Each structure stands twice: as C-alpha cells, then as structure tokens.
C-alpha cells in the first residue's frame, strides 16, 4: 500500500504500526492548535503578499483555517494518529475543506520552523496568564505582611530558634523571592518573543519570504538571525522551565514551612479546613495536603527541566526528532505552575498565626539571648566574648531548671553576674525591643517593615507595568 502521508511521495510502503505510534505527537501537541492556526494565517498572508497566493485564494484559506479552529474549539475535530501532529492535522483538514488549495499552505515552510514558532507563540500566551496569577500572589503577600506587622514570630537558622522577627518580615521574605521568579518569567517571555518562520528546515527557504511582514503579523519583537540556530535551539523552553523550577523551589520551601509549622509540635500556623484533608482511617487527622502536593510538584517540574536538558545535550546539527518530546515537560510545567500559584496564594491568604504558641516558643527558645549579650556590651562595657559566656551560663541554668529568661529568679541571675539584676534587664530581653533594635534597612524594626512594605508596593506597581507592556505584545 502506498503511503498517504503528507510527506509520503517517495515512500512505497506505509509506516509500520510502531512507527505511527512512536512518531505521533498529536496526542499532546494538539494543545498548540490555536497558535498553529494563527501562525498559518500569518504565513498565508505573507504568501499572498509575495504573490504565491491570490487575494481570493488567501480569503478562502483564511476562512478554511478559521473553520478548522472552530471545529477544534467545539470538540468536533477528529484527531487521527495518521496525521502525526497538530501541524499536519490542521493542514489535512484544511485541504478537506477547501480542496487542493490547502496544499499550497506549506509553501516555503517546514514543520521545523513551524513547530518552533508555534511553541514560542504558545509560551507568550501562557506566560501572560502565569504573570497575571503571579501578580495576585504578590499582592496577597503584601496584604499578609501588612496585617501581621505586630505579630512577633520565631526566626530560625538550622531549624533552631534564632531571633525574634516580625511576621511581616517572614512573609515579605517570600514576596521578594517571588519577585525574582516573576522577573524570570518576564525574561522567558522575551526569550520566546522572536520570529523563526522563514528558517525553513534549516537553511532558509527558496521563496522571497518576507520575514518583517511575518514579524509584524505575529507581533514578535525580533527576528532570529540564523536559520540553523532558529530550528536548532530550545532555549526559550529551557528558560521557561527554569523559571517554573525556581518558583517551585521557593513555593516548596514555603510549603515545607507550612507543613512543619502547622504540626502539633510547632502549632504556629493553622490552615482552614477547606485547604486540608482528612484520613479515611484516623478520625482525628487534618493533613496539610495542599502544601505537600506543592512540595511534590517541585520535584516533578525540576525533573521536566532536567528531562529537556538531557534530551538536548547529544543532539547534533539543527532539528532532530528528539525535539518532538520537548512539549511534554513544557505542557506539564504550564499546568502545574498555574496550580501551584493558586495553591500558594490561597494558603497565604488563609493562614492564621497562633500567637500564643509563637510567643511560648520564642521564650523557651531564648530568642533574645543575643540581645542580652549585646546589651551587656553596650550598657555594661563588657567585651562581647565575656557577655556571650555569661548569657550562655544563664541559658544553661534556665534549661536545667525549666526557666526562661523572664522567669528565672533575680537571685539566680545575680549568682551568674551582677549586671543581670539591672532594672533594664527586662527591657533587654523583650521580644519587641529585640525587633525594634534591628533598625537597619531590610531589618525587622517596625518602621523598617513599613518602609519595606512601601518598597514592595512600588515593586508590585513596576511589575504590573511590565506585565501590561508584555501583554501589549500579544496578538
Ligand atoms: N511533530 C514534530 C515536532 O514536534 C514536528 C516537526 C517534525 N519535523 C520533521 N522533520 N519530522 O517536533
């Protein structure tokens, strides 16, 4: 049987079942249908402009492509494995609708430049949606910081209580990490925002393709300079997968904090019932599944980045069929990052801090021991090494007797050092004072938090402008 493939001219035999099943990408790349139609309409218009299609032919072709689009959107399109991928599926349906004229569409184009262009258009569309969701997450961090500025929270290093901080400070630390993620996504958008059509299979095309016209039609910011590079590289996808991975790492670390801090042993956070799940066997359970899934998904998307890097690494010269599978981690990352953005946003919005428990831990964890040592230096003129030693002894004594820095009796303090019975002692170990003393830009003092919140708002404004500017570059 002679092959009926669009590329089947030179073939005597039809592809075997294994070739068809392994070669197909239609099962997943149908996601690109809208971008493929958009790219084809632009290409057809360019073909008319350079005299390959007449005006009447162009009109018919555009209407045909729009009908295909309509059929796919209405779920009335039959995807056939024999058509391999979205590009050939659309083209062969177009030919069914408008007859032999449909066969002119692929003039001066290869699927190699077509698929790269489609993915770039897809990335631009999806990144705009991701940025939109991101802006609302950033706004939620700021609101959370504003409402928690007067809550004192245990700050950790090595997962051991270190120093008191304002809860706003903690939430803003995640805000700034997410600002960098947002900027990565902006850069991924810019990386994708390039015309590759006209690269052909790899060498360029035998027609006077008007690439400037195509660039304007598709609203792209640049034209790639080298046709081999145009069809060879997947840096736009790598960059995007890196952006998703970086954000997912940040989300995963926050999720881990939520998991820990909402356990009985910490009890600093409470998630609402609506964001948790029960157990089918243990009636008492309330599990932070949303946070665990966010942590789990980080592994999945980082795996996707790794998948693509390893896949590309050994591919020689220009297009290789391996590249077909670049879309699997890409589509997955797009879907997952949207879920994670929404999940993190809802957790932040709904999270309650249980202040009694945070205060108890701060005290039991001697969170102001450093402040006391510094006070001994500043007010009592002791060298820091000595004050460190004295406070160390104080902590040791407290630990033995289950006291905290504010419950240890005066006479016990006196045994350790004269200076510890000074009337300013209470002040020196106060959580609030400890925060207020960190009066440096970026520090935890109240006025510095207010300053930071206003900086965060300015940043959000600036990022919103950048988002609007990129959105203007969509077709
Ligand atoms: N489905 C293919 C892909 O996603 C399209 C390009 C096919 N090109 C080729 N030379 N067979 O990469």
UniProtKB/TrEMBL annotation:
It comes from the Bacteria. Pfam families: ASL_C2 (PF14698), Lyase_1 (PF00206). It catalyses: 2-(N(omega)-L-arginino)succinate = fumarate + L-arginine. Residues 9-303 form the Fumarate lyase N-terminal domain. One of its GO terms (biological process) is L-arginine biosynthetic process via ornithine. InterPro entries: Arg_succ_lyase_C (IPR029419), Argininosuccinate_lyase (IPR009049), Fumarase/histidase_N (IPR024083), Fumarate_lyase_CS (IPR020557), Fumarate_lyase_fam (IPR000362), Fumarate_lyase_N (IPR022761), L-Aspartase-like (IPR008948). It is found in: Cytoplasm. The keyword Metal-binding does not apply. GO terms for cellular component: cytosol. Its EC number is 4.3.2.1. Residues 366-435 form the Argininosuccinate lyase C-terminal domain. GO terms for molecular function: argininosuccinate lyase activity. Pathway: Amino-acid biosynthesis; L-arginine biosynthesis; L-arginine from L-ornithine and carbamoyl phosphate: step 3/3. Keywords: Amino-acid biosynthesis, Arginine biosynthesis, Cytoplasm, Lyase. Belongs to the lyase 1 family. Argininosuccinate lyase subfamily. NCBIfam families: argH (TIGR00838). PANTHER family: ARGININOSUCCINATE LYASE. This is Argininosuccinate lyase. It comes from Leptospira ryugenii. The lineage of its organism: Bacteria, Pseudomonadati, Spirochaetota, Spirochaetia, Leptospirales. The gene is argH.
